[in-house]
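User:
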Amino acid sequence: MNTLRKLINGPKPLVIPGVYDAIGAKIAQKVGFDAMFQTGYGTSATLFGMPDYGFVGATETVENARRICRAVRVPVIVDSDTGYGNALSVWKLVNELEKAGAAGIFLEDQRWPKRCGHMAGKEVVEREEYVEKLQAAVDARKSKDFIIVARTDARATLGLDEAIERGRHYKKMGADVVFVEAPKSVDEMRKIGKSINAPLVANMIEGGATPIVSARELHKMGFKIILYPLSILYANTYATLQTLRELKKSGTTSKVRKNLVSFDEFNDIVELPKFRNLELRYKKSK
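Assistant: Predicted structure:
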C-alpha cells in the first residue's frame, strides 16, 4: 500500500473523496481511489442529523475513524476539526487516531464551536494558540508517514493575505500540508498557489464559496490534494429523496429500480463471497 506521504509527493494530483461511513469507504476503494477523507460535515449529518456546527466531538471522530479504517486498505485522512480542546487534547487525539489506523488529520484554526468552512459566522484563534496544537500533533505522531494538514479559516475573517501568512507560518512550524479554506475566486486560488511553498489542499464543495476547478488546472496552480468532501453525501441524499418520494407516492420503487444497485452487486461490495468461503472453511474443519 502506498503511504499517504508517497501519494502526496507523487507526480499527479491526489483526488480524494469525502466519506462518512464504512460502506462509502469500501465503495470509494472499489472504484479505485488511492486515499479518502473522513468528513466531519458528513459525520455530523449522518450520526446526528445535525449540521457541521460543532456538535461532533473527539469520541465520535475516533470511533468513526476506527470503523472506516478497518473497512479499507487505502489511507484515510480524518477531519479533526479544532482538536476538541487544547494542545493536550490534540496530542491525545492524534495518538488515538493513529492507533485507529488513520493516515493523517486535518487540524483547523477556528474558534470553538467550529462550523463548516463555507458557512458564515466563523472565527479564528490567535496564531500562537493554533501553533501550540500543531506542535502537539507533530510531537504525538509515532510514524513519519502520519500526515498533518494545517487548515486556516482566516480568509473569511481576516482576509486572504493573513490566511496566506498563517499558511506559511504553519508550514514552518511543522505542518506537512497547508489548507487555506474557502478562497472566493480562481485568482485567489492562484495567489495561494504562488505564495505558499508547501503541498496545498483545494476544497471543492458543490455550491460552496470556492469555484469548482478541474484537478488538472488546480495542480498547475500548485495544489496537490484535490478534495471533494461532500459529493458522496449530497449524491446519496439526492438518491434517497428521489427513492422515498416515489415510494411514498406510488407505494413501490418500480419506477426508480434502474437507479438502485442490485442485491448481488451490493453483496459484492460488502464482500459476502469472502465470508461465505470463510464460513465453509470452518465448517470443513470440524
